[in-house]
Amino acid sequence: MISSTVVSLTLSILLGLMIFLFIIRIVLSWYPQVALNKFPFSWVAIPTEPFLVVTRKLIAPVGGVDITPIVWVGLFSLAREILLGQQGLLTMMLN
């Protein structure tokens, strides 16, 4: 049986990794000459692009700047805090 601590730790790592990848994606957006389909940049683009495609349909660029990675950093940070923060739902259930 998988302990709840392992589930909590795994979820924390996954959410933290996605936040990190979106931050890298934000930095890479400052360099339009970067080919996101080439190694090593594809390692950032492949897991983040499915989220960004959906969000780009809902949120138009602001002043020519794609803000969708910033939106996802906020959403993943919020989810991590709500679930795993000091008074998060999973944290409270495990204690």
Describe this entry's structure for a reader.
- The protein is 68% helix and 0% strand.
- α1 runs antiparallel to α3.
- It has one domain.
- With 95 residues, it is mostly helical.
- It is elongated, with a radius of gyration of 16 Å.
One letter per element, helices H and strands E, the order comes to HHHH
From the N-terminal CA to the C-terminal CA, the straight-line distance is 18 Å
Largest sheet: none
Average of pLDDT: 89
**Annotation field: number of helices:** 4
Shape: elongated
Low-confidence stretches: none
User: What fraction strand?
Assistant: under 5%
Protein name: YggT family protein
Family: Belongs to the YggT family.
GO cellular component, one term: membrane
InterPro entries: CCB3/YggT
Short description, anyone?
This protein is mostly helical and 95 residues long.
Helix and strand topology:
Blueprint: H1 4-28, H2 42-58, H3 68-84, H4 89-94
Name its key features.
95 residues, CCB3/YggT, transmembrane
